[in-house]
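Hi D.,

Good news: the full-assembly prediction came through. Inputs first.
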Amino acid sequence: MVSRGLGEKACVRCNVPYAQAMSATTYSAGTTDLSESLYDAMPWEHADVRDAQRQRLLAEVTALKADGVVVDATLAEAIESKSASWPE
Amino acid sequence: MSRYEGRRAFVMDSGALTTLAANDALRLAWLEEFTRWKHGVVLIPEIILAETFVGQKASDFRMARLLGAVEDMANPGSLWLPVTKEIFKRAGVLRSDAILAAPRRQAPSVADATVVACAESVSFKMAVTIFTTDPDDLELLVDQTRRTNIAVDAL
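Then the structure:
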């Protein structure tokens, strides 16, 4: 099997080649502006890809609950308080 | 704006994934939290695969189940953060800066530095929370990025 290099891959959602996105990369040591980078062409930049993952996560939540898994209220509160402090 | 409205990436290191895979209640709690972020997404740096599969049937099965909830099996690779040469170079710079910043500490691992380099790249697009079981090293590395929208949290 011949493996494909990263430059030959493309976004599974819009088919933009990673190489095309990488050509706009201006990164060098000391420069951290990667805004025009490989990640502009990544699948998760698309809202529908994120939504699809959210649906899978919800399905796993439902499956765990169906298996009888429960979350202690103290744990749920601890997680809630953690996320409240994350910077935007 | 409610925090559940903003875009946010949840980046996992190997310790976080291993912990979530092994603990059903913790996994349920965190997966519920992730789903509350309407515009959130769970992203996994490719490099952590080398630390999460161990060749033991039960452990690997649980890891595969967790990854299956994250990844679209019809589009393999869609939720992975690729590790490019640029990311590796950036990881090297961050690791070196971290060593200089805390010379008496044990140097952060290459894997940790790579996770942070991936997270830094994502942070130009959206806020990031890195989940880890080693918050001290990850925070030291994040400090070197000087990004203000990256949180580090222990599960």
